[in-house]
Automatic annotation (TrEMBL):
Keywords: Acyltransferase, Membrane, Transferase, Transmembrane, Transmembrane helix
GO-annotated cellular components: membrane
Involved pathway(s): Secondary metabolite biosynthesis
Domain Wax synthase: 62-103
InterPro entries xref list: Wax_synthase, Wax_synthase_dom
Lipid bilayer topology: Multi-pass membrane protein
Organism: Adiantum capillus-veneris (Maidenhair fern)
UniProt-recorded Gene Ontology molecular function terms: O-acyltransferase activity
Membrane-spanning ranges: 68-92, 98-115, 127-145
Record localization: Membrane
GO biological process per UniProt: lipid metabolic process
Any Pfam family matching the protein: MBOAT_2
Keyword Oxidoreductase in annotation: no
Protein name per UniProt: Wax synthase domain-containing protein
């Protein structure tokens, strides 16, 4: 959703090509070998986005700084939405820790793209996975989880799950008893 509503519009705004009013700036209508509505003929259409999108032929080659700004904007908007969700869950005012979590991850993604372009040799997959998960784990413990644990929302959610689990177990045990009581 954020790609369509934040990333792509900002990317197109910052790039040299700008869509005209009323045109689709971010979606290519891929046809998978279907009927052409105008001519009524069967045709094979390429699924390459660069060949398909006539409106933005250079969209795949947007400048790195435009992509970085668009990516950061998407992460900031995501952080603000998550902050709102956390305010609703915890029933407390915003601490901005969750938004900071997303901003840090946005900068980390921009930095990763920069490193991949600067050093095209890939890091071995197991090492990359460990690095990514470690970074996610540390920042989640530092910024993402504290607003939930401070408010006690995690304990309330666990209690609600236990209550729901008990109701389901009771329902199945009653149903199991009725199945066993059926005469054969």
């Amino acid at each position: 959703m954020l790609r369509e509503t934040v990333y792509v519009p900002i990317l197109h705004f910052l790039s040299a090509e700008r869509p005209e009013h009323g045109t689709s700036s971010h979606s290519c209508n891929f046809k998978k070998g279907g009927m052409d509505a105008k001519e009524g003929t069967q045709e094979k259409v390429e699924t390459n986005s660069a060949a398909c999108c006539k409106e933005f032929p250079n969209a795949g080659r947007a400048l790195l700084h435009a992509r970085a700004v668009a990516m950061l904007a998407a992460f900031i908007v995501s952080g603000l939405f998550h902050e709102l969700i956390f305010c609703c869950i915890t029933q407390r005012s915003a601490t901005w820790e969750v938004t900071m979590f997303f901003i840090i991850h946005g900068f980390a993604n921009v930095f990763e793209v920069f490193l991949r372009r600067k050093f095209p040799r890939k890091l071995p997959r197991p090492i990359a996975i460990v690095c990514t998960l470690s970074f996610l784990y540390v920042t989640a413990l530092w910024l993402f989880m504290p607003p939930i644990t401070r408010s006690g929302a995690d304990l309330r959610i666990q209690a609600e799950f236990r209550y729901a689990q008990n109701r389901v177990v009771d329902l199945f045990s009653r149903y199991q008893g009725k199945v066993n009581d059926v005469p054969s």
